Amino acid sequence: MATRPYFTVGLTGGIGSGKSAATDGLHQAGAAVVDADVLAHRVTAAGGAAIEPIRSRFGSGFIGESGALDRRAMRRHVFADPAARQALEAIVHPLVRQAVEEEALGWHRAGVPYVIFAIPLLVESGQWTQRVDRVLVVDAPQALQVQRVMRRSGLSETEVLTIIGQQASRATRLAAAHDVLVNVGPLTQLARHAARLHAQYLRLANAHAMAAAGAL
Which residues does residue 180 pair with via DSSP β-bridges, in sequence order? Predict the structure, then answer.
């Protein structure tokens, strides 16, 4: 379990579950959010901390003309080669973890009561579940996940199912959850659920802060 002086919630879910919408809802309710995907893009952008290690390990063919990671080429490569995926994760994940912690500390110093860590592979990482105080899983039936991803990305059903198969199973994610946000209805419904969770997390964050102060 996390031992920070501030309260953290790790938000995760399968592709197409609606993580972004849930994160937006919690942010609008008043939560501070640190998005691991945004930070992963930052460290793999032109001049990012991961670029030269990636070039050294995989070659310049995976670096685009802009100097950023060629994400499409790398995605095809690592989907076909599990060892390559592990090598990429060994480069990128520690940099993202460091960036997440630094950004969260900035929010804490700014006085926010708690921080949401939006981490798509929270369960798969095997580490983040122990780095947060609470795990929130955004959940949706697989058929709805497939429909959403096909609609927004143009991927085929087979391609989407392949991605889902490479992620933690729905049952595994739910088993790791302290809280579940079921995302099957309209955004207004999601916003109401997010507001209720935010109120719950404020109470937990207050208790966490009091316990941390008492331990000093």
Answer: 137
